[in-house]
Design a protein that fits this description.
Length: 178
């Protein structure tokens, strides 16, 4: 059984905690800025969480598809690398274990083994690049999150043909207004 003192303190904690929380949220909302640091930390902890924080939800499947494809190729190339490496080592011992690979000689097995190892290593690099790029993307998006609110709405550009009668020349004029 829960004691009555514990129940009372729990109820008071819930009441005062919720009222404090609602007051702090109201004051933070008016002055709250979008934090690039938070976007970077979120993306570093969970890939594409920074994109969700920046409300760029359409980028999340792209990040996961890229990472998933990289992981798939890491696993597949590693499996192929091990298969050809084991066959090569067995051939050095004088055994031909895999009948499907009997058409390859030792130099072919070594070349194919090195190719799959290189592809596996490149897949690791691709996975790392995708991870780093999604962190950079989250940071840049967070920096430009309020960009439309900060810029002047009177930006315009006019492109029009011109003719100077004094010099009898024709051309184009580009006029930018900020």
């Amino acid at each position: 059984m829960i004691s009555s003192k514990f129940r009372i303190s729990l109820v008071l904690l819930l009441i005062f905690g919720s009222s404090f929380n609602s007051r702090s949220q109201n004051t933070e909302d008016s002055t709250k800025t979008h934090s690039p640091k938070r976007a970077v930390i979120l993306s570093a902890l969970l890939p594409s969480a920074g994109q969700a924080y920046n409300k760029k939800y359409w980028k999340m499947p792209i990040v996961y598809a890229g990472m998933g494809a990289s992981i798939y190729f890491i696993i597949d190339n590693n499996k192929q690398y091990k298969q050809f490496r084991n066959e090569y080592l067995d051939r050095l011992d004088g055994n031909i274990c895999n009948c499907e690979l009997a058409v390859y000689d030792e130099s072919d097995l070594l070349t194919i083994q090195n190719t799959y190892r290189r592809w596996r290593d490149l897949s690791y690099i691709a996975l790392g690049l995708i991870y780093v790029l999604q962190i950079v993307d989250a940071s840049v998006d967070a920096h430009f999150f309020d960009w439309e609110k900060q810029i002047n709405q009177d930006i315009s550009m006019k492109f029009m043909p011109t003719h100077d009668f004094a010099t009898r020349s024709t051309g184009f004029t580009l006029k930018l207004s900020f």
